[in-house]
Amino acid sequence: DAMVIQNPRYQVTQFGKPVTLSCSQTLNHNVMYWYQQKSSQAPKLLFHYYDKDFNNEADTPDNFQSRRPNTSFCFLDIRSPGLGDTAMYLCATSGIGTDGNQPQHFGDGTRLSIL
Amino acid sequence: GEDVEQSLFLSVREGDSSVINCTYTDSSSTYLYWYKQEPGAGLQLLTYIFSNMDMKQDQRLTVLLNKKDKHLSLRIADTQTGDSAIYFCAATGGSYIPTFGRGTSLIVHP
Fold first, then answer.
1. Which of A9, A41, A73, A92 is deepest in the core (most CB within 10 A)?
2. Is residue B35 a contact partner of residue B43, using CB atoms and an 8 Å limit?
């Protein structure tokens, strides 16, 4: 009963070739997040959507963009991947409301390799 | 902003208890979380505690919160080899977005 689903699980792409990672959720959560995680490091927040409002972290490279066409789906686009973008990309969701905040729920991640 | 610190490694013998420690800096943190990450997988929520609680127990897991010292711990009773993973502590600070520690790698040996 996967609730946050990321596709693909593994992606290999060439230096400079655009790539899109996808995330879908069945939790009806209003917030969706994208994290980048490199080996032996904490997840690093790239950006998140609070409903339709996009929130970019100050140090997220311009190369990284996101789309959220509806509540259930969110995409991470990397326009011109560099070797340093090789990492695990994690999608997470949470429900934020007046009755309290729910913990983040994570997908299994997409392991991206840039060659 | 919030800063979360954890020790990087912990090694225990199977059947013993494991205690993973975490400190945070923002006293306004409302929610404190423990996540588990197995190799090649995402983060799995193990448990969480509200700042108005001192302790929470869930089967083999016990979370202790010392708000005065801004210290959080996760105790795993009867640690099994399947518990080997990286454990992340996270705190919300004054935001709904948690800040993660670098993770503690738990190694369980026979």
1. A92
2. yes
Using 50, 70 and 90 to split pLDDT, how confident is the model at A94? very high
DSSP A60-88: S-TTEEEE-SSSSEEEEEESS--GGG-EE
pLDDT tens, position by position, B20-54: 999 999 888 888 999 999 988 899 999 999 988 99
SS3 of chain A? CCCEEEECCEEEECCCCCEEEEEEECCCCCEEEEEEECCCCCCEEEEEEECCEEEECCCCCCCEEEECCCCCEEEEEECCCCHHHCEEEEEEEECEECCEECCCEECCCEEEEEC
Q: Give the one of A4, A42, A111 whose C-beta lies nearest to B101's C-beta.
A: A42
Tokens linked to B64 = 């202790």
Structure tokens at B92: 């919300």
Q: CA-nearest residue of chain B to A55?
A: B97
A83 phi, psi to nearest 5 deg? -60, -30
Residues 49-88 of A with CB under 8 A from B: none
